[in-house]
Amino acid sequence: MDRGRGSALLGDLPRWTGWLALSAVSGLLAVAGLALVIAARQVADTRQPLFDALTPICGLHTLGQSFVATAPNLDRIDLWLAWSPSPQKDQTVTTTLSPGQATPDRRPHSDQIGRYRLFLPIIVRSPDVLNTQGCNPVSRDGSGVITVSLKAAPASATAIASARLRLDSLENPAAALRRPYVYQSFAFPPIPDSAGRTFYLSVEAPSASVAAPLLARYQHGDVYAPGTRYLDGTPTPGDLAFRIYYGDAPAGDLWLLLDRLAGGRPAPFNWPWLYPLLLAVYAGSVVLIVRFIVRCVGAR
Amino acid sequence: MSPQRIGLYLAILAFLHGLVYLALTPPWQAPDEPQHFQYVRFLLEERRLPNSHDETVDTPLTEAVRQSMIQFDFWTWRDRSTAPATLNYRIASVHPPLYYVLAAVALAPFPSLDVTAQLYIVRLFSLTLTALTVWVTYQAMRSLFPDSPALAAAVPLFIALLPMHAFLGSSVNNDTLAELTATAVIWMLIEISRRGFTWQRGAWLVVALAAAMLTKRTVFFLVPLAAITLLIVLAPRTRRWLAVAGVLAVFTWLAIAFQYAGNYAGSLVRAAGSVSHLGLSDLALWGALLFTTFWGNFGWATVQLDAAWYSLLLIVTAISGAGWVKLAWHWRRCLPALASWQRWAGAMCALAVLSVWAQMVALILAGGIHQQARYLFPAIVPIALFLVLGWGTWVPGRWQGRALGLGAALLVIFDLATLAIYQLPFYYG
Q1: Dihedrals phi, psi of B314, to nearest 5 degrees
Q2: Within a 13 Å sphere around the CA of B71, how many CA atoms are in the beta-carbon half?
Q3: Residue A124 and residue B72: Cβ atoms within 8 Å?
Q4: Do the Cβ atoms of B97 and B214 come closer than 8 Å?
Q5: What does pTM read for this prediction?
């Protein structure tokens, strides 16, 4: 058989067409794989990604955030929470205040001092004062739970949905070698009529103590106009850092991603399809070029 | 099959890989892009080199850059903050000018584009340099291993597919030209070790070295490296080691003086103070920063992977290290397999790795700056060479081709995983 020709099964097609097909399939597989992972992880429609402060809570104190859902089927909320069983001398200032009296303290947070700044991006934040009223002073038990509830209003007694996590599953800011600023996900059954509704998100951690409070990252300025932050049910300046997800069809998430990729970019990077195309061409080329090199190496 | 075509295809692969990162990385989200870009635009507008005073002046350019950074939420992803009233990333006037002059020439035909579009033009220029680096790497490895085409291809293939290399190589940064010129110097030194010194090779070496010195201070290790290699090749055998020791001493001193000119004594005091306060945890954290920024710590070192990935990469790196232990154990059998010039060239590569490390440690101690692995990338060729050689010791000769394919596939899968799980969700999720 002619070396430049394919098998009898493929008729008289030149062999390079087979490699081209393999390259195209590899490119498509790479794009499809990436799309599957992204669709499974979802893309947040509503985001408040800023933070410059940490708020600590313990005992029966609560924090909250109101927000407006922008799509139906709300099914997940991501928050930036942290908890450490180790003493956090530089992290929180303990005092007894009445609810709503907490004010930012401009002392540096532990991420900014000493060894932590070697590994982590330096992010300016300040700890708030901790309201210790009614809190266990010393417990460092990480088996307690955090409950995140969705309600219609801060005063509502009934929760529309709720989800729980263990305290010790949160990011530990005292660990030097860690991936910092990891969101914690709270998933619910989808709320079909969520679009356009205002929700109140409540966070409780009754077993968090004065020595090891629950920490939540937030922006002290009002950066999320449709909602506000709450402490013990009272509106407080600032907004928690959060992301809201909706159980859309996976295609919806991918469209949103492509829109964000192309948004505001100069031509040709403003064309959303450029991104999957580039990825497919790259993955396909890897197969072709590596195959070529392996054959060359084998031949010599 | 022409070996030249392998080099060309590897360069194309590096270009396509970088193009993916160029497109996916939001504007300004690669280390120091605003500062480097302003240098390029400054040269185009003012037709002179910037000085420290220019760093303090607000101009229409700084405001245009700030507005573009606001448009693409720069401060949100950089440090989760809001934009400042004036730009806090100023022109990088301390750097030598060659990269910026060449980038300005590339940008000159596009004066009417806005700063964001111009940023992409300069990113493309950087990417071209990165693709050239991969081509030069292949030439250097062909020269070092004329009888081992698998090894000659494996090193540039590793560099072309390394995610952090593609990310940094497609950004506006003088590291790209520093790496290209340093790789060219190493290629010339291998050529001189193999074929002897000629005036043509000497001239190319001087050109590459001069270009490197005009690009970035992180390539200063090349000067003692080139001097020692030339002495070994040219000096009479009896004087070699004396000459090597003398050159090392002089250039160590010069290196420190060059890096910290103007505050030499203060730097030494700071370095000594740093050493006296060093703890194991500090060393571990420096090592962690270097390790993660070599394999995958994207953005302004803000897009980190989970610890499980780094643990896996540590095992992969340790397998290469174990390969070197195996090689050292069997050195009596391995060394005679190499020609005398290959041993010298290999020693030169080892010295390149050691000296770039020493230079970085000096920067950390005296400058108090915690360094990322991109400052090691001028020596990416010897670093990649030693990694690949270590892995190669575990692969039987007849499986080298398949191992090359498998290694490439694993790197691509790792790359796609970092994009899908970390990079895209960080900026766009």
Answers
A1: -65, -40
A2: 16
A3: no
A4: yes
A5: 0.88
- Closest CA of chain A from B314, distance in Å: 14
Comparing C-alpha atoms, which of B24, B380, B317, B8 is closest to residue B167? B24
Closest CA to A245 of A37, A40, A77: A77
- The answer, for A97 touching chain B at a CB cutoff of 8 Å, is no
Question: In terms of Cα–Cα distance, which of B118, B153, B150, B123 is closest to B137?
Answer: B153
* A3 has a chain B CB within 8 A of its CB: no
CA gap B394, B313 in Å, rounded:
17
Identify which of B230, B211, B207, B205 has the alpha carbon closest to the alpha carbon of residue B351. B230
Token representation of residue B159: 């560099």
Structure tokens belonging to residue B383:
């670093």
* CA nearest to B299, candidates B416, B423, B174: B423
Chain A positions touching B405 (Cβ under 8 A) are 290-291, 294
**B132-190, pLDDT tens digit by residue?**
999 999 999 999 999 888 899 999 999 999 999 999 999 999 999 999 999 999 999 99
Inter-chain residue contact A278 with B428, CB threshold 8 Å:
no
Cα distances (angstroms) measured from residue B205 to each of B136, B225, B341: 13, 12, 18
Chain A contact present for B107, CB below 8 A = no
8 Å CB contact of A293 and B404? yes
Residue A242: its H or E element: strand A242-246
Burial of residue B109 (CB within 10 Å: 0-12, 13-18, 19+) is exposed
Candidates A42, A221, A282; nearest CB to B16: A282
A235 inside 8 A of chain B by CB: no
Using CA coordinates, name the residue in chain B closest to A182.
Answer: B306
All residues of chain B having their beta carbon less than 8 Å from the beta carbon of residue A243 are 429
| Alpha-carbon span A100 to A292, nearest angstrom | 68
Residues 6+ apart with CB under 8 A from B159: B14, B133, B134, B137, B165, B380, B381, B384
Task: Indicate the burial class of B127 (C-beta count within 10 angstroms; 0-12, 13-18, 19 or more).
Answer: buried
ipTM score here?
A: 0.89
DSSP string for residues in A20-38: HHHHHHHHHHHHHHHHHHH
Listed in sequence order, the residues at least 6 apart from B394 whose beta carbon sits closer than 8 Å to its beta carbon are B319, B323, B326
* For residues A252-258, average pLDDT: 90
- For B313-334, write each residue's pLDDT tens digit: 999 999 999 999 999 888 877 7
Cα separation, B87 vs B68, whole angstroms: 11
B63 touching A (Cβ < 8 Å): no
B79, A41: Cβ pair inside 8 Å? no
User: Are the C-beta atoms of B285 and B364 separated by less than 8 Å?
Assistant: no
A83: tokens are 């908890």
Q: Contacts of residue B281 in chain A, CB cutoff 8 Å?
A: 115, 176
pLDDT at B359: 81
**Are residues B402 and A289, on separate chains, in Cβ contact within 8 Å?**
no
Give yes or no for B20 touching A (CB within 8 A). Answer: yes
Amino acid at the residue A163: A
Nearest by Cα to B381 from B226, B164, B186:
B186
By the CB < 8 Å criterion, does B301 face chain A? yes
